[in-house]
Amino acid sequence: MLPSRIRQAYALLISLGLCVVVAQPVRRHLGDAQVRDSFPLSTFPMFSKARPALEPATYLIALEGDGTRHFVRYTHWASGGWNQGRAQVHRYKKGRAGGPEALCELVAGSLSEVPSGWPTQAVEVQMVWGEYDVERWFVEDYQLPAAETTLARCEVPR
After folding, report:
1. Given 27, 45, 109, 143, which residue has the most CB atoms within 10 angstroms?
2. Region 44-68: what's the mean pLDDT?
3. SS3 148
């Protein structure tokens, strides 16, 4: 067993070493040093870049006969998770896999098979590109688009 003084010196050295390692990211913000990205002081654009006033999105909506809008869940065109569904929407938007019209028809067919709920009232499906004011969406619960362009539309078969 080591004497008490040696153990204390060893603990002090380890503690000082850990403090230096933890404080290292701060030095990149001192002087003229070039700032590089690292955790936890990230300069990665996703965290440090200003967000646009309007956020673009491509999505599918279903319309009832009276014009009521419903966002269509990704489960009507993707077997995987939400991210896979989003990626598939972008593939169709770019003209792959038959283009926007093909996705519209696929979703309309899927909605026509739902036995209850709002999908039974859906008469039309639209694939749209819209821009949303994210601040108003979250702060005021205002969920209408600032701008919207219809990429494809089709009827729900009944």
Report:
1. 109
2. 86
3. strand
Contact between 109 and 127 under an 8 Å Cβ cutoff? The reply is no
* From 30-39, 52-61, 82-91, the region with the lowest mean pLDDT: 30-39
Q: Which domain holds residue 15?
A: 4-48
Judgement on whether residues 96 and 138 belong to the same structural domain of the protein: yes
Say if residues 49 and 123 touch (Cβ distance below 8 Å).
no
Q: Is 141 left (phi over 0), alpha (psi -120 to 50) or beta?
A: left
How confident is the model at residue 72, as a pLDDT? 96
Work out how many domains the chain is built from and give that number. 2
> Does 26 lie in the same domain as 82?
no
Confidence check: pLDDT of 64 > 80: yes
Q: In three state form, how does the secondary structure of 13-61 look? A: HHHHHHHHHHHHHHHCCCCCCCCCCCCCCCCCHHHHCCCCCEEEEEEEE
pTM, two decimal places: 0.68
What is d(CA 99, CA 149) in angstroms, rounded to the nearest whole number?
A: 15
